[in-house]
Design a protein that fits this description.
This protein is α/β, with parallel strands linked by helices and about 350 residues long. The chain is about 30% helix and about 15% strand. It has ten helices and 13 strands. It is globular, with a radius of gyration of 19 Å. It starts with a strand and ends with a helix. Bound molecules: S-adenosylmethionine and iron/sulfur cluster. The site of iron/sulfur cluster has 13 residues, from helix 10.
Length: about 350
């Protein structure tokens, strides 16, 4: 479903007021999908049989992305995560990041990537202003990697991880989706990386996002169970206090480990009451909740000539109707039909 744009009200003074929704949540974090294209076919995201790309004219141009980000930063967004699809398959991404890095008010530019092309771009990304890198890696076993992603590229990803560590990125995180019978035996080796390297390893519950992914309630392992399994194998996990504005992961430390272990539990422990995030899809739709298919079209009014001040007002009104949370959406089982690769995770 696509909402009509909110009415423009030029009388509203908007500049420098924090961006808040009707539940008084301050919105400071934007996740923006720069493309729905990807060079992998992870079975939980983009199963081989089921996809067609969005027509390229529907994808936001870099100029449109920059305008949207600038308007959001003027309204209080402090952190932007570029995601996809695979953001690094979009040519010219580094140039976009250089421009975003000059936006007033923006404190963090983050990238979520599958890591396959990261080795090639790591230095440029650092110079351009990327501060945080999340790399998706579900296993340390090359054969399992190939069977999950459809590509024999484990070594490339691992080399990229070593490279970003060597370059000294301020924060490097690994994201692993845990799927029963597919990747749940891989959690131990991944967790050990946090002992050996200054990497936070975060385990994500497998989510029913996209119509055709092979999700069933049985395929998802709740985070508490993943944490218990790790604790039995590796010893006590000390809870780490999270600072305000920290992401949704519950964090733990293994004694003496430089990295943390994190658990992201969108299904078993929703974090809607503290949600500070907004999403813009690759085709320019503002998505206020991952699990709500209601979207607000930004691209059309932009292409119809909406000016910068109107854009800010438009976004401010649009975010005000962010739903309380997916538990309040009246769904028995959360899910959404749009593919994760166009939403950006
Ligand atoms: N291609 C990049 C990558 O893989 O990191 C960025 C886009 S990807 C859609 C963003 C994140 O969503 C990844 O960490 C991926 O593992 C996660 N993801 C995709 N499908 C998922 C699902 N069904 N359940 C949980 N996480 C999922
Ligand atoms: Fe591509 Fe990322 Fe989806 Fe895997 S999770 S198919 S790498 S977009």
């Amino acid at each position: 479903m696509t909402f009509l744009p909110p009415e423009h009200d030029k009388s509203t003074a908007v500049v420098n007021m924090p961006l808040t929704d009707s539940f008084s949540r301050k919105l400071t974090y934007l996740r923006l999908s720069v493309t729905d294209r990807c060079n992998l076919r992870c079975r939980y995201c983009m199963p081989q049989s089921s996809f067609s790309w969005m027509p390229s004219e529907n994808i936001l141009s870099f100029e449109e992305i920059h305008r949207i980000c600038r308007a959001f930063c003027k309204s209080g967004i402090r952190k932007i995560r570029l995601t996809g699809g695979e953001p690094l398959v979009r040519r010219g991404l580094v140039g976009l990041i250089q421009k975003l890095n000059r936006l007033e008010g923006l404190e963090e530019i983050c990238l979520t990537t599958n890591g396959t092309l990261l080795g090639e771009y790591a230095e440029e990304l650092m110079d351009a202003g990327v501060t945080h890198i999340n790399i998706s890696l579900d296993t340390m076993v090359p054969d399992t990697y190939a069977s999950i992603t459809g590509a024999d590229m484990f070594q490339k990803v691992w080399d990229s991880i070593l490279k970003v560590l060597e370059l000294g990125f301020p924060q490097v995180k690994l994201n692993a989706v845990v799927i029963k019978g597919v990747t749940d035996s891989d959690i131990y080796e991944l967790a050990r990386l946090a002992i050996e390297y200054p990497i936070d390893v975060r385990f994500i519950e497998f989510m029913p996002v996209g119509d055709s992914i092979p999700w069933s309630p049985d395929s998802m392992i709740p985070s508490d169970e993943i944490r218990n399994r790790l604790e039995r194998e590796m010893g006590h996990l000390e809870p780490v206090k999270r600072h305000a504005g920290a992401g949704p992961a519950s964090l733990y430390r293994l004694k003496g480990a430089p990295g943390l272990l994190g658990f992201i539990s969108p299904l078993s422990h929703h974090f809607c009451s503290t949600c500070n995030r907004l999403r813009v899809t690759a085709d320019g739709k503002l998505r206020l909740c991952l699990f709500s298919d209601s979207e607000i079209d930004i691209k059309t009014p932009l292409r119809q000539g909406m000016g910068d001040v109107e854009l800010e007002q438009f976004l401010r009104k649009a975010v005000a109707v962010k739903p309380e949370g997916y538990h309040a959406l009246g769904k028995e089982q959360v899910s959404c039909s749009k593919r994760m690769s166009s939403i950006g995770g």
